[in-house]
Amino acid sequence: MTNILAGDIGGTKTILAVFSSEKKRVPLVEKTFKSKDFFGLESIIVDFFSRTEIEISHACFGVAGPVNQDRARLTNLDWEIDSRNVEKETGISHVMLVNDLVAVSSAVPFLESGDLITLNKGIPDPAGTIAVIAPGTGLGEAFLTWNGSCYQAFPSEGGHADFAPTTDLEMELLAWLREKIDHVSYEQVCSGLGIPQLYSFLKEKGYDRETDWLADKLRKAPDPNPVIMEGALGKRKCSLCQQTLAMFVSILASEAGNMAVNLLARGGVYLGGGIPGRILPALQEKEFLAGFCRKGRMAGLLHEIPVHVILNTKAALLGAAILVLERLKEEGGN
User: Fold this and answer.
1) 274: left (phi over 0), alpha (psi -120 to 50) or beta
2) How far apart are CA 77 and CA 204, in angstroms?
């Protein structure tokens, strides 16, 4: 039996968990940390180890940022991570760093029916390319291809590609944002960073009035996103919040469709990250699938591509553990 330390390292929170090679779907130990409360990943691991006596020799961390030559810099947090330094500071013998969406994607082939909600059944190709798009603090994207015997995940920084409006309202949003920032990417409008910008745009442009009770809640909230989502989906509805969510869903649908045609993702498109599961009722409305399929002459193709929401909140951790097990298997085979 091998115990594996898996990590989901994000700009807002870091989750560490220990998985056993014999029972890899359920973590033995798991703990969540606020990333900004620490100077780096090493200090979080040391804190985690102080709370458990489980011995760890192998670890894999999914990092919210590009990874190159075992080094990574988080996109939305001022952290630099070097696998060799992590090994030195924590005593872990073998440390892998991968993009967080590679970790999530690596779990996709192992997800079960209870881990998913299907938005479009489509006609899945069992060896077709799979796209994964994950709006959370930022917007992550990745994909998997079939190599003849199994799926292999590949990273992407597609969330930082230029935002392409598809409606007059989104054209107006782009012009508004260009006055404020140099580069308007999909992440700027389709993530936890983007939702408050959509809200501010609609409010400033007078598309609806901000209610006093919501304004008071937003002033007191450390994070405006849950407040806006509550105003859109909760018992006490706010029209401005509902319009914000509708705009977010439209943009997410369009970019998910972009990934589908760019990759010819006949294996399916999977929505991960922290946001889709929280806005599931909105994604299940007809507007999402209509926006996803709105690709002109490719509309028929898009209707055939399966679309799923990943409900398993431990997908990134599970994927990280699977990557270690696959490497150990390869090394054992050699």
Assistant:
1) alpha
2) 28
Q: Which residue has the tokens 């606020």?
A: 34
Q: Mean pLDDT score of the chain, rounded to an integer?
A: 94
Task: Classify 65 in phi/psi space as left (phi over 0), alpha (psi -120 to 50) or beta.
Answer: left
Q: Tell me: the pLDDT tens digits for 194-244?
A: 999 999 999 999 999 999 999 999 999 999 999 999 999 999 999 999 999
CB 61 within 8 A of CB 17: no
Q: Model pTM? A: 0.93
Q: What pLDDT score was predicted for residue 333? A: 53
Same domain, 279 and 160: yes
Maximum distance among all Cα pairs of the chain, rounded to whole angstroms: 66
pLDDT (tens digit, 9 = 90+) per residue, 120-179? 999 999 999 999 999 998 999 999 999 999 999 999 999 999 999 999 999 999 999 999
Residue 191 and residue 267 share a domain:
yes
Beta-bridged to residue 146, according to DSSP, are 151
For residues 71 and 214, membership in a common domain is answered with no
How far apart are the C-alpha atoms of 217 and 289, rounded to whole Å?
Answer: 32
Residues 157 and 280 in one domain: yes
Which residue range is the domain that position 253 belongs to? 112-311
Give the H/E segment covering residue 217: helix 212-220
Picking from 158, 166, 175, 135, the residue whose alpha carbon sits closest to that of residue 251 is 166
Measuring CA to CA, how many Å separate 249 from each of 6, 128, 252? 31, 26, 5
Are residues 250 and 320 part of one domain? no
What is the number of structural domains in the chain? 2
